[in-house]
Amino acid sequence: MAEVEEDGKHSEEFTDESEEEDSQEEPKLKYERLSNGVTEILQKDAASCMTVHDKFLALGTHFGKVFLLDIQGNVTQKFEISSVKINQISLDESGEHVGICSEDGKVQVFGLYTREGFHENFDYPIKVVALHPQFTRSNYKQFVTGGNKLLLYEKNWPNRWKMSVLHEGEGSITNIKWRANLIAWSNNLCVKIYDFSTKQRITSVLRDNVSLRPDMYPCSLCWKDNTTLIVGWGTSIKICTVKERNPTEMRDLPSRYVEIESNFQTEFFISGLAPLADQLVTLFFVKENSDHMDEEFRARPRLDIIQPLPEGSEEISSDALTVRNFQDNECRDYRLEHSEGESLFYIISPKDIVVAKERSQDDHIDWLLEKKKYEEALMAAEISFKNIKRHDVQKIGMSYINHLVENGEYDSAARKCQKVLGKNMELWENEVYRFKTIGQLKAISQYLPRGDLRLRPAIYEMILHEFLGTDYEGFATLIREWPGELYNNMAIVQAVTDHLKRDPNNSILLTTLAELYTYDQRYDRALEIYLRLRHKDVYQLIHKHNLFSSIEDKIVLLMDFDKEKAVDMLLDNEDKISIDRVVEELAHRPELLHVYLHKLFKRDHHRGQKYHERQIGLYAEYDRPNLLPFLRDSTHCPLEKALEICQERNFVEETVFLLSRMGNCRRALQMIMEELEDVDKAIEFAKEQDDAELWEDLISYSIDKPPFITGLLNNIGTHVDPILLIHRIKEGMEIPNLRNSLVKILQDYNLQIMLREGCKKILVADSLSLLQKMHRTQMRGVRVDEENICESCHATILPSDMAKAFSVVMFQCRHMFHKECLPSSGAIPGVQFCNICSAKRRGPGSGILEMKK
């Protein structure tokens, strides 16, 4: 990718083009070049260092100048510090004080809004300076500088600066990071951490690759939080955590110690580090190696997001950045600074400053649209519609519809219209006309709004005409699904009528026309079409719109279509179409009349009683199996007329029933014996009538017919004494199965005897049980009080003076007498009877029944 000189472009300008084309993974960061005043500065000068505050930026250059910039890169202040390279700029947390050091040994610490300050010139280069994070507060006026030594400056009471040496003897100090009470710095050999609160050095973290020149591959330090330090040096990254030591283990040791939580190697050289939640943003210097990779690509710096793991790391994303003059830069020329408040990352090189930031939802949607993932973009926009600023959900949806149409996915595009177009009538109509232009009206027809939101009737009529000209079935489906209010019904009716002139017997068009007539409340027209087509919805139409007055002259048509449904409908609505009217209409179709009257009779034996005489002939003609049940159940049919019809047609069973019902049982029995020759039926008939004379006639008729005798012997035993039949059998007559018949008679007799004995036992047991119950009842005590009277003298049974002796006699019938009021003994000496019960000739205990009554 060619170098991009224009300012303010997005991430595509700073990342490798070939990698972007091959990768289908969305980048995690987006990039912009810091422009405005920065562009002019870097055209004449080169950036050497930069420090980031949430409110502004501080940029140091190779010509000894320091610029204060706003977030957009506009210059707000300029300081002429030196004529040589600015090595480091440090800001306190408030952004009110700044510390600056340069290559010629100058160190300046001053307030941006006050006159106070510290100015010192050393005779050796000062590489780094770091202010106390709370430098603004009077108790924390401290800062450190790093050259050949690590020096601490503190402001004492008389406003004088006191200097003390924290460390020396291990080469030049190359980096310092101060967080809370912890100071971390690097020299040529290792990284050390100093606890400012206890004035103790905690630990040393040794450098892994000692072969690299520390001035060419400087150490990168970054505090993730107040206790976690990230160290990057060469191709090694270590994550160190400062922890409190257990008091029992201290002895002469510092109160804190450092534990390395993660340690892993990287592919390229580290130029800068910054935290991103639980991940790391790492700026890599890619050393040229023409044997393995393209030379130009290898010289581009890379910005990676890495997920540290206990045993290594995982690369989340990696972007190769095209910065200005990257071919001339070394590892020490790049720096990575970050703003904790907004997750902004600044990649600083001598001639370019690039800002990386986390991608917003708008950026995510941009990427999805670029990759033509329109459905995912639409979903993302719908979920985050409150947070997106550059995009509009409906516009994304329209882009998706356009994409589907371009790819020929017309049905999918039409389906998305429901979701995307919503209630925008203008967009709906535009889409309909577009689908018409491309010949795909059918695709969008089923998704058109048809509820509270409706388009102009002309839109729906245009689609209906399209279907009517090419697809009768589709046209019929739309008529069924669309409410009739969507279009001009009369116009569509006329169009269908015109088509029927060319094809008058087309059932689909006729059915659709009937539905249109129904929408237009011209039910008589619809009914005629349905009857003509024998359409199943005819009965539903009649019920729904109460069209019974319109079908009085169409009953035969309805019956021809479906007898069962027609009869059920007529009988259910007898109040609207009378029985007489139906009979009149069906008079010339007796087979249909029979079906109607038969169902009427089944529902109620009496409602059609005046047609029962007529029904006899109808049953005889069309439904003989139901004639006999009808004759049995009907109490209104004339028996003589029925007998005449049955005799004419030689219906023996029906004639037998009518003869028996008219009292001519002997003739009926004769017909059974002579015409049916069915002894079982004759016996059954005799049993039903239970007439001795019939049994005699049956025996007389059967006496010379051995098969009949066998039947009688098998069935007569329980109704007639078998001896009467046996005595009349002629000697020498051969009777089939006589032995079995006699055995059966004996078995039946034994069964009768057993039944009688069983009944006798039950009767005796019941009698004994009742006698015992009566005896227990009579043995119970009886309450006698002042309310009881003597049945003879009618005086109170108890004397007024209970001290005197008295005698009372009570019978089992509960009648009471004074002893002296009883008459003398009767015919049986010593036995007395109740006078009242004896007079009434009732037995003992009958008085109890009288009392219960």
Give an overview in words.
It is built from 31 helices and 30 strands. The N terminus and C terminus are likely disordered. With 853 residues, it is of the alpha+beta class. Helix 5 packs antiparallel against helix 6. Strands 1-28-27-26 form a four-stranded antiparallel sheet, with helices on one face. Strands 2-3-4-5 form a four-stranded antiparallel sheet, covered by helices on one side. Strands 6-7-8-9 form a four-stranded antiparallel sheet, with no helix packed on it.
Task: Tell me the strand order in the biggest sheet.
Answer: 1-28-27-26
Unreliable residue runs: 1-12, 16-22, 844-853
Give the CATH class of one domain. Answer: Mainly Alpha
The count of β-strands is: 30
Please give the CATH architecture of one domain. Answer: Alpha Horseshoe
The N- to C-terminal Cα distance equals 123 Å
- Taken as a percent bin, the fraction of beta residues is 15-25%
Structural class: alpha+beta
Mean pLDDT: 82
Largest sheet: 4 strands, antiparallel
Number of helices: 31
Radius of gyration: 60 Å
**CATH fold group of one domain:** Serine Threonine Protein Phosphatase 5, Tetratricopeptide repeat
| Inertia-based shape | elongated
The residue fraction in helices comes out at 25-40%
